[in-house]
Amino acid sequence: MSEIYRSTTTAPVNIAVIKYWGKRDPKLNLPTNSSLSVTLSQADLRTLTTASCSPTYPTGDTLLINGQSQDVSGARTQACFHALRELRKDIEYEKPEVPRLSHFPLHIVSENNFPTAAGLASSAAGFAALVRAIADLYELPTDPTELSRIARQGSGSACRSLFGGYVGWERGTRMDGKDSMAFQVAPASHWPDMRALILVVSAAKKGVSSTTGMQTTVATSTLFPMRPKEVVPRRMKEMAKAITDKDFETFAKVTMMDSNSFHASCLDTYPPIFYLNDVSRAAIKAVEVINAAAGKIIAAYTFDAGPNAVIYYLAEHEAAIAGLFKAILGDKDGWENERGAAIQANAAAVKTLEEEAGVVIPVIKEGVSRVILTGVGEGPVKSEEHLVDEQGQVVSR
Amino acid sequence: MSEIYRSTTTAPVNIAVIKYWGKRDPKLNLPTNSSLSVTLSQADLRTLTTASCSPTYPTGDTLLINGQSQDVSGARTQACFHALRELRKDIEYEKPEVPRLSHFPLHIVSENNFPTAAGLASSAAGFAALVRAIADLYELPTDPTELSRIARQGSGSACRSLFGGYVGWERGTRMDGKDSMAFQVAPASHWPDMRALILVVSAAKKGVSSTTGMQTTVATSTLFPMRPKEVVPRRMKEMAKAITDKDFETFAKVTMMDSNSFHASCLDTYPPIFYLNDVSRAAIKAVEVINAAAGKIIAAYTFDAGPNAVIYYLAEHEAAIAGLFKAILGDKDGWENERGAAIQANAAAVKTLEEEAGVVIPVIKEGVSRVILTGVGEGPVKSEEHLVDEQGQVVSR
């Protein structure tokens, strides 16, 4: 019998409504401000990761993502491996009878169920799954909060993907980062009607990496200091209350304002960083027209470090929002699933948009390459769909 | 003999390097922060205005701009007329022998030498010329500083067009606005080599008006308060010193950062205001590549409330900057004059741009409709080219 140990988990993508931008400690990935996100459904977007280890593996940890071998020598991956092995060693020290897994090479195999070309930040789901899978493999008694401190060191926003629903990340004040961790504001079941429509924009070229970009902002923007000092602390409270109260209008307004504030900080960086393009601006205008037509805020845009628009709305307004975009983008990928098929193209909404800001319709039509229909979802889930077989071989799929 | 009194003046356009955005008093046009601009040469961009008055004119003041009759009942035009008439009345009170011009209807006729379609803010030159022409007509003993307080009430940035060269506008702190006026930082002759290349971008639609936009920023942006509080006061000092020292690199860096800061404030407004588009961003990238290739900052972009790029540079770098854009935009209007004809299309610079950021070349080519080659210039100049003849008739041209 081969001594192969393995554990598999899924982890979700999250999209922040209060943005993480700026590190107070780049080595420990400690942020300049707290942030808050919605965890998205893993039916639509998830990473599946198997962590395995064995005394029979050749020396050296390995990581395979979507069939591509990755460099594991980077400080971030190493920080995660190291922290998890230390926790395992504590168990091995307490219970000499358990196998000494911490000494075996780790083989990690990971797959995303969404196209890499979508330009969605996969590092959050990736590091959350990696940390959760190794923690399960090592049978660590840690809760998500504890693991979030470790995942944070791999990729800041990964700490938020260890929880489902509505998730905060407390910046903390300690130098060692012990108090900088994620927490659940509310589970998905508290406000399950939250939907997200992602407009994937075909960008000509990848922009500035977020790690480089955020530190240039911290170093050069003269407007940015207002975010950690005043703007974000106030918005964290407003947003947590909006979620508790299921107050969509406040949720939406704070989401849009914070996205704008983040991109304004990028523009105030020297040299300036642009993630929004004319397609992004057209999506913003479409959301403004939708809200004006409804007479209240029923849709909220937000943009991460790229031109893709994420539009949050409640299920009851699917016709007004997803219906409008289906009418414009019905020939693009992303409407094939059951939910997508059920959405009626909303010709009346297109007519209103045409009247109010007709110029944006061809811009959206030409600039969006696919859509992703999703919504709030659960945190990591243990899986038996292992990507490493009982002989330690990568499962070919 | 007909009793027609007239006086004619020209006034220049100015383009700010430290931006005016936000009013602390919308009625008096008092700004939230000081600003600083370069007055552009009137050979390329100017307003020509004749102010005339006569007891024989029918009742009511009139204003004709580029052959179009304008409404003069607006508070801003009225504020200018009223302030100038009051100063004239003081003279008439002191010297009963002078004609009582303050009681006669005013007929103002104004023409720009640049296409309205260029989307250049003509209100600064327009109100500066209007105020200067009426002041000359009334033989007011006022200097440009005094007149700048009046022109400011017509259009904020008009106060800076009463001076040539490098011009500041002090925000002032008084409620009545008496200390909010323009002043000359340095005459054009101090640093005459300053050139400006304007890339006129064919925008699909006029954006948010600046008056509405800036007050929405003041009311909603949470980052903007840093500008009046810290950012602009520091930059005003840095910029004045850079001009005194003829330190182009500092001049350029502060110019670019302040343009970015202004547009970041617009983006942080709710709802967000966008003036920059993908063509503007391509122009920014081109300037970044020019500077990187030169190994120092030889060009500075700045953008007002629209997508047009204004690029400042020194005459010695004409080949590197204007030459690059001539190679890309040589078939567009604006190169016909003597200076434009003398510029060689710089193929080597295009090659560098192609290598570093080739994607921007077609964006600039397709998005820029014309160029304007100009540079630092003088303030208003009295003219005998009257737009009203000796019989009080508008001169047809």
Automatic annotation (TrEMBL), chains A, B:
Its EC number is 4.1.1.33. GO terms for biological process: isopentenyl diphosphate biosynthetic process, mevalonate pathway; sterol biosynthetic process. InterPro entries: GHMP_kinase_C_sf, Mev_decarb, Mev_diP_decarb, MVD-like_N, Mvd1_C, Ribosomal_Su5_D2-typ_SF, Ribsml_uS5_D2-typ_fold_subgr. Residues 196-381 form the Mvd1 C-terminal domain. Pathway: Isoprenoid biosynthesis; isopentenyl diphosphate biosynthesis via mevalonate pathway; isopentenyl diphosphate from (R)-mevalonate: step 3/3. Belongs to the diphosphomevalonate decarboxylase family. PANTHER family: DIPHOSPHOMEVALONATE DECARBOXYLASE. This is Diphosphomevalonate decarboxylase.
